[in-house]
Protein 1
Amino acid sequence: MCGIVGFVGRRNAAPVLLEGLRRLEYRGYDSAGLALLDGGAFTLVRRKGRVAALEDAARGKAGKVGIGHTRWATHGAPSERNAHPHIYGKFAVVHNGIIENYRALKKECEESGETFASDTDSEVIAHLLAKYDEGDFLDSVRHAVAGLRGSYALAILCEGRPDELIAARKGSPLIVGERDGEWYVASDIPALAGKGMKLCPLSDGEIAVLKRGGAAFFDIEGKRIEKEWAEYDTETSAPQLCGYPHFMRKEIDEIPASIAQTAAEFLKKPANQSLCEVLCHTEYVQIVACGTAYHSGLAAKCAIEALARIPAEACIASEYRYRDPVVSKSTLVVAVSQSGETADTLAAARLAKERGAYLIAVANVPHSSLTALADHVIPTAAGTEIGVAATKSYNAQLIALYLLALSLRAAKSGARDVSSSGLASQCERDGEDARLLETLRALPALCGEAIAASRKTKEWARRFCSAKSIYFIGRGCDHAAAVEGSLKLKEISYLPSEGYPAGELKHGTLALIGRDTPVVAVMTDRALAEKTMNSVHEAISRGADAYLVTSLSEYAERKEFAASILVPACERLFSPAVSVIPLQLLAYETALACGNDPDKPRNLAKSVTVE
Ligand code: AGP
């Protein structure tokens, strides 16, 4: 989604801003722009399309202070006039987030004779800055943001202040960086990659004033606040392709390492007494998340209910707060998010906390809004994920949630220390728990084997790319893998696709099944296999070609399937971590067969920071 980069330094700002914007390209955007200050008036350059086009247009433009932006259209079409920065009067502004009351604010401005140059909600911020301008830049910002409803991360320049940039945040991430006496601001850490960079994330309601001579932080009342800085070797936050054609393909190969690392970090954490108390008293688990993260919640629900015998529910975060959810002190709410910045997940997590739930965040980005909000964080250690289509982060989420399920199981059985390192020793005492933990520890190797077994997906993709629509079916835990396989496929191949519980097909969707609608069955649970086969036969009888992803060797050779992939067998509750891999690779190969860039799907953004 939208990206922000700002710079105050001794060098020309344009190359710094462009490099930062390039590092944010993976997030998805449709236009880009920058504004520079070089003593006099602003230099504004904006382009629809790629950062490369902006780079050509910005060549030779001077200014040691600047702000840059990649825009993912929400209010107003993708176009040059709607691209940020927006300038009004003495102020240039770039904005991430959504200003919910912009219509009323814009109307007020128009009634007093001001004209607007774009269709965006963001431009109103520049007008407010001008309205409150009495010569003190910080005061103008404080008064302007006080009138905004919604979410914002802002970087602002003011004409006549050629060595100053102000940044402000509420509900949208923003990080200040410093290296060698030069100052940076960015919406995401990868934009600030480089050795020796010191970083300081802003919290909601905070304002940073960056000048060539130093940085100062203020609250919304204008009171000075002290902030902590941490040094990051952010070189590692800017992943390279390392010979792979696409990040998505590379990230699938990184799945075994991601899950091994996630499990290792979970199990080495010192015991946490208050978490143990919470797990012991948990009577109901709600997992709130969106998209792929929600699908990890579907798999986790099966595992928690089966292993801990505690009722669990996977909740679509964007629906959660509108259904007046039932939450009590014995409800454990687990918010799952790769980015930790998804607006819907954050809103659901906030509501759950307000209602008294204990909040666990399962997040891949360590310093995110979600991790700041949570009572306890279970990190996924997948490393930065560039592909918009989540792969390794999904598998890492599964492992984190399975370990949580084992902790809840241990808590239910009366163990006192059920968190992290305590879980490992508890499992050593109990035969069945030990077996389950060993199964989890074996998953990285099984995932590696599944990647090797998925070569055939290239051949499947050649057939799938001309299909009318593609259906994925499965029962129990296999359903969780099926819906994720379907989401992956539609995200990057743009082919219509649905994932269904196999038994649901006959209740309506079967009407759509025919010759040009392949059906992919996921089948790893022997107890349910014949039931799933019934659905497969129903589809074949209507002319569909059926494809199979299975760990059951006796089904892999069955003649009714057009093709099948045999993945290694594992404990059925954990099987989605393995069986999803051929589906991720199928989506990747189908995107290529359709001529699409799998890393940059149209209309989608990596981190969805608007409701
Ligand atoms: C997954 O491929 C998608 N990009 C999307 O569904 C994503 O999982 C969803 O937007 C949630 O993102 P989060 O994990 O960063 O919260």
Protein 2
Amino acid sequence: MEYSEIMVRYGELSTKGKNRMRFINKLKQNIKHVLSIYPDVTITANRDRAHIFLNGTDYVPVAESLKNIFGIQAFSPSYKVEKNLESIKQAVQEVMQDVYHDGLTFKITSKRSDHTFEMDSRKLNQYLGSAVFDVLPNIQAKMKGPDINLQVEVREEAAYLSYENIKGAGGLPVGTAGRGMLMLSGGIDSPVAGYLALKRGVDIEAVHFASPPYTSPGALKKAQDLTRKLTKFGGNITFIEVPFTEIQEEIKEKAPEAYLMTLTRRFMMRITDRIREERSGLVIINGESLGQVASQTLESMQAINAVTCTPIIRPVVTMDKLEIIDIAQKIDTFDISIQPFEDCCTIFAPDRPKTNPKIKNVEQYEKRMAVEELVERAVAGIKVTTITPQADSDDVDDMIDDLL
Ligand code: ATP
Ligand code: MG
């Protein structure tokens, strides 16, 4: 037998009272976006569960995609069976014979939402249980903690059998916490920061600063590829490219080397904040962490932060580099992050940036520049695109093989 649908149980959102329907609709939308790479799959969602109809699509890759989507607590693939006793019985026998091995225990848990069906759930349990003994005389029934809990659900349109319960990603559906701007470089840390913000329901928009011709198209593509990797957790992500060349040249010309990094970051922060305001974002998220290099001291963080009072979430701030790399590998961004394309910061970064920049000095240097106009021009020049999920390249290879 082949799986016909997947039953999805919601995560933490079950505790959210009257917001429940808003959460569920968001989750449904996110699942739709993530599963859009499987054109035949359809989805419905009600107060208690969502149902994903495979319509002939292979179950395995769909399940892999589902495992990533935030807001899903668990899911079960199910077999659809014609709603009559004989068909249900045969299907139950077939499934149990398929999964049975020596020593395995089982129980049947029936549920009847169609109350006109000829047997109630208690009778159905007994009837189907004895049907299992007919074909597997050595199997043991066990009411508490059986190896296989075969769930039989008699609904209006059909009956459904399921016995697997697969753990979902947990977290909150992306978008239920509001919008935040993720400052996304091509590095290892910011995609991980983005992932962690997504996990708590933040609808991130990726803001990337590019300084062509100093930065290459490859660096831009890298940031876009990283963004695409992040779409598997909750669907489409808006990608915002900011033209940053003019500002970097201006800083280079007007300020001493030791302050380039701090000034650059302050401009990035101002611009991101302006974009946030225009696009109704509530917070800024970045990949800053505490460490030994200059951009990572608390003094530096304070100098950069001083240009805004918007809340800034720094999901990786207290993590060790190895912990961050661990997550980057898990979410499959690491290999992209280590591609050797120079970021705008790497190119203009001096060998010895100040580890304890003085705000007074910083402000002095900024007086030499038309800060407001520079920021405005950069914001006016942004390019906004939508990044959508894409089948993994392995899948694409398979598809190409299929075509040949
Ligand atoms: P990452 O690995 O994310 O690049 P990092 O450890 O290299 O971080 P920095 O280079 O000091 O740290 O950057 C700190 C943060 O500033 C980044 O995590 C990112 O949020 C932001 N940032 C740096 N460069 C860019 C850029 N070109 N576009 C957007 N944000 C950037
Ligand atoms: Mg970096």
Protein 3
Amino acid sequence: MKKILVVGAGGQIGTELVPHLQKHYGKENVIAADLRDEMVAKLQTFATGIKLDAMDYEAFDKTVKEYNIDSIFNLVALLSATGEKNPQFAWKLNMGALLNSLNIALENHCALFTPSSIGAFGESTPHDDTPQDTVMRPNTMYGVCKVSGELLSDYYHTRFGVDTRSVRFPGIISYGCLPGGGTTDYAVEVFYEILKTGHYTCPIPKDAYMDMLYMPDALNAVTTLMEADPSKLVHRNSFNITSMSFTPEQLFACIKKRIPTATFDYDVDPVRAAIAHSWPNKMDDSCARKEWGWKPQWGIEEMVDDMLKHIAEKLGL
Ligand code: NAD
């Protein structure tokens, strides 16, 4: 029986990962923790929600012991676009929360999942069919943290035997909770703006091609990887996974097909444009497919239908 602690549970991924884990492992076996009071209050409406600062080692360790936790999901991070506004703090938070998670996992014999990102790649990485093992020289603090995190997580596995596992998430598209300051946020924001006002001004260049994943596939990736037979895992930190790649122009064409009155223009943010430009167009996820059976279900057309349906419902339209 798994007893799970999700830290940073109040964000875009956590608010949907918690119910997904509850479904798999039982509601009483998932503890959802976040730093921000409003997130904790939201989590408490459907889970055992607690306030916890992942940077506070003592409190984190005490929580793991108190609830007999055997699996930690560490979602704490300052994301790519926000991280560039305060890179020193991004390093402190992203690496601090990870190091605490690793040491607490080691001390308490827990498995640990920490997502990496397409942000771990950079300009010099091959952009098409980006291999699992390749050049990783990112030029954002977010990316520097992700590469360092992957290395540290592998180190804790080989040196101390901690069961660390991870995926490199591309941009995650979802309707549950707004994204928290990443470069691919446009692919969520556009649905709200088009349904609310009929118009969207995009901060990303129209031809910026990036990998994306719809939330149901992202959630399945997490549980499938964490359940995978360890003897089959050649890699651990971290696996390329993707299910669709598109440019803003291609996504907007799909939306316009369904809402012909929708209009779009661009007011490009140079920081986000540079980040988008440095990321892969499409990752090769064959290692994930081979080593633990990664098999995404959602493509762009089905995702657009589902997003429009659910966000319209949410907005009461
Ligand atoms: P998010 O910003 O939406 O959520 C992060 C949560 O962490 C927030 O609720 C925040 O309150 C909480 N938090 C911040 N500092 C904390 C602390 N000290 N202690 C406890 N909680 C704290 O992020 P997300 O989009 O849910 O991303 C989760 C993970 O997935 C991150 O590691 C991120 O890098 C990775 N990822 C996300 C995406 C994406 O598109 N969303 C893509 C690639 C990778």
Protein 4
Amino acid sequence: MVEYNPNAIEKKWQKKWEEEKTFKSEIDSSKKKFYPLVEFPYPSGQGLHVGHPRPYTALDVVARKRRLDGENVMYPMGWDAFGLPAENYAIENKIHPAIITEKNINHFRDQMRSIGFSFDWDREINTTDPDYYKWSQWIFIQMFKKGLAYKSETSVNWCPSCLVGLANEEVVDGKCERCGAEVEHKLKNQWMLKITAYADRLIDDLAEVDYESRIKASQINWIGRSHGADVNFSLKDRDEKLTVYTTRPDTIFGVTYMVVSPEHPILEKYKDDIKNYDQILDYKHQASLKSDFERSELNKDKTGVMIDGLSAINPLNNKEIPIWVSDYVLMSYGTGAIMAVPAHDERDFEFAKKFDMPIIPVYDSKDELPVTDIEKGTAINSDFLNGLSATEAKKKAIEYVEENKLGEAKTNFKLRDWVFSRQRYWGEPIPMVYCDECGWVPVDEKDLPVRLPEIESYTPTATGESPLAKIDDFVNTTCPHCGKPARRETDTMPQWAGSSWYYLRYADPHNHEEIASKEALDYYTPVDWYNGGMEHTTLHLLYSRFWHKFLYDIGVVPTKEPYKKRTSHGMILGYDGQKMSKSRGNVVNPDDIIRDFGADTLRTYEMFMGDFSSVAKWSDEGVKGCRKYLERVFNLIDLVEDGDDYSKELEVSINQTIKKVSDDFENLKFNTAIAALMSLLNEMRALGKITKADFKTYITLLNPVAPHLTEELWQMAGFDGELNQTSWPKYDESKLSFDTIDLPVQVNGKVRGKITISKTASKEEALDLASKENNVNSYIEGKEFRKVIYVPGKILNLVV
Ligand code: ANZ
Ligand code: ZN
């Protein structure tokens, strides 16, 4: 008996796949294409952890199955390689980030190869390659030309001790991640991308794609579209309007005070009339230290100051109400001012409780206040709205407001334009030039890419400019428009740029003339199935959908949406049920698992460890169990005897397993597919012998999960060619159950056909199936039955 030796088997097949380019895909319009995509990783210095292979294996299973189904599968991989860790390492060690990045990429690639993924490695891309980022720059220029890229003063996170601008992920609890200093907000003129111009389409077009509902929900929530009205309240005794945005104009009779954001211009404008202006200035300063996120947290303690000297008039009942300043109202949303309805809004309620403001309910409900559910009750205390449901009242209130010129219906979005500048080195240079005469001018397309220059220090400058600002050779250039001396933009693009369109480049990665040829885009896009982490279902997905829609609008891509389908996997946790991290000492290195158990065991375990879309806890016992299972599969070959048909005893189980595994793989239910294969294995072992046909089907079904082992067994059994060149087994509908039989159907005493039906089927089912049987049907069509004799499990006899 030969021993299962995964290390030898796996190396052998990996070498063969690589040499023979087994998984290379080329445009072939005679074949249906299938483009599965997994998120390309940031090649960190730590190498792969066991979380990475979970999604990669999952779509590898689907990819391998689809190849056996006869589809032309293009499964690519690449590197999202710009980013902070390589840059910070460069700053500390004075090594060019490109060198570190290359080293890390080589390590990642080796690790991936050792797991046996069926990637088409000829399509590998790297976002830091000038041949790649040339096109990121090209897209930026197209956006600029369409008015979608513009400069604006926005706030950056500024560390006053490191003297650098920080990315959001470097700010932890309001402090600099590196030195712990309190982060400040500094205004800078930065490039912005106008994603808000696409807000409606980014929601509406979700109807056309097949995303998990939790993913659609995260897109919709982030965009945050709401329908309501802008309503004008006038300031008492002044010719001035204070406009609020409200989604509940129906609650206007319940307004007991107003609130403006600390940044609201009305404060400055009336400072001479405001008696407690000093107190307000002090409050403004306190608020400036908080992020919008902290300010809008629901259960934070409410603070505020009442404006002494200004008040407002409710336009519907002409009552005078006070105006407060509070940081729970943000200047960046709506109009920066609100009408407060404490009876029906959570935050207004807390505020009113704390500052003892009146609370007037405008819906009758037995529930405790605040009643925020719009379905609850009918309107009260609301004059002409009384008795209406909230939906009716909202409609009527908007009509009233519009008719009386008190305001207008309004749709608002939470989505903001995308800050597209970073003051860092390791990113794509933004291809713009500033000329004193011509303003901002894009670099000529023929001069792309604008390459990152070699520099000595990667540290941002003390004024917060990118280190590129110190390189005169880089900065000083001529205006592409008028030819006079001009200066290059020294900001670089953010981490998200390269990943916003990478899936397009895979279609034609070596093209020097365009992003990808029209032919390649027409054939391969859209992506058929994209799987990635839940942490990327908001921003990355939104940004790439935005870029794709823009490219669609300018005629570069053939479809409105980049991804037909999007699914998400759960994270892998350490033994202790905690997120894997170095400091906790619970990190599992896939290299160790491969060395000790083999790549097929790693793959099988990753797919077997639990429901794919939920989090799962790593367990060494589980790994050992999978290894044991594969050993048994290996030993199955000793039971093989001749025979081109399935063993009678196994026939039903095999057909059931084909059906189950086929369905489960397509529905990301890998754990139950593997469980079914394990149980079929037990049946085979109990029987003590199996036919070649049984064996062939078994290893084919397991092949997508354990490709090395099953190829080896294929060869050992003496089957022709390679397993990956054959086809996926089909099941026989009639053999899915032990109690189905082929029931003869007689018409007027002669057998005219057979139907496959359960032994216990009813007369109606039998008749129904019989009439669908072509031959039988030709004898009975249009005729009336004189007699129907049905003996379940034996015969159906029709007399016409
Ligand atoms: C009165 C009201 C009564 C409100 C009620 C809600 C419930 P969404 O749905 O998220 O768009 N709001 C408006 N601008 C704001 C700002 N700049 N900062 C903080 N809150 C603001 O939320 C819209 C609601 O949030 C608006 O409707 C307003 O409060 C508040 F029973 O007006 B509402
Ligand atoms: Zn010029």
